[in-house]
Fold this sequence. Notes:
By secondary structure, the protein is α+β, with helices and mostly antiparallel strands. The chain has helices spanning 22-101, 116-136, 262-265, 274-278, 284-295, 299-305, 313-320; strands spanning 5-10, 15-20, 147-150, 153-156, 163-166, 169-172, 178-180, 185-191, 200-205, 210-220, 227-228, 233-237, 247-254, 257-259.
Amino acid sequence: MIHPLLVTITTRQSARQFKLRSWLLWVLLGCWMITIGLVYSYQQQLQQAQQALTLSQHEFDQSLNSIRELREAEQQLFTQLDSQYDRWRHFDNRLQGVEVLAGLSEVDITPIPTPYQGRLAQVQHKIQLRQQMLTKIPNGNPMEYRRVSSQFGSRKHPISFKRHRHTGVDLRADKGQPIYATADGYVQQARDNYDRGYGNMVTLSHQMGFDTRYAHMNSVAVKYGQFVRKGELVGYCGNSGDSTASHLHYEVRFLGNAIDPKPFMSWNLANYEQIFETVGTLPWDSFQAELTQQLQPLEPQLSQQVPSSMVPLSSVATFTSTGK
Ligand SMILES: [Zn+2]
């Protein structure tokens, strides 16, 4: 049996005693135990929270470092992209310049949707076509000359003084000045030691129905039937035949009919399309279509120059026939 607990409270004047019963003692003991338990539990939770906070702080620092590294990488990437973009713009501008030179109109140039291989193939084909045209059809001067002493067309003949149609141009130059073929062709006529009419002369037969004549020569440098390339020597300037001074009588004929040589003499790559207007009576589209057909065997060579996914010539030929 547990006896009641006596508690004495003493003051200066008196002292009082309280009797604590046993059940009250148990209640106080229980409260004290619960309080101790709660304090311990809170301490544990606080410790865990501090550990979690430390861990989060560490992870936060790591994330911050990662973000800094990513930003630096992003900056480097943007710098590289800027550099690549500048190079791409430079290349694109140059390609557009070449496309314009090659005769691809503004409408034909679509830089973004058309792959560069395709655009390069188009430019190559255009340039090939123009080179072929300027090789097969007479163009440029047959000789270095001082002046044009007589134009194509109606004139008074220098010997008979009668009005007649002058079928070529007369180019004044010294005797012995070399004369060159104005296009690839075969020697249809090589007449030497002849002193009447055209005198010593060479006639070249070219593709597409063209002929050129070189008359009043001092001497000829080619033989009948021989193939000559554009720019190859055909003879020397002279004064043979019905001529009053050393000069070259130069003719351009289409299907046997003499036409004014002047537009052909000034025709070159830089003003390539001009002649289609000045000599608008000729079927230029037909010539270009024919030469496009002749260029087909060159496709494998072009493929070697522009590897991978190159647009075949058969597909780019469609626009070439629209431009003159
Ligand atoms: Zn003449």
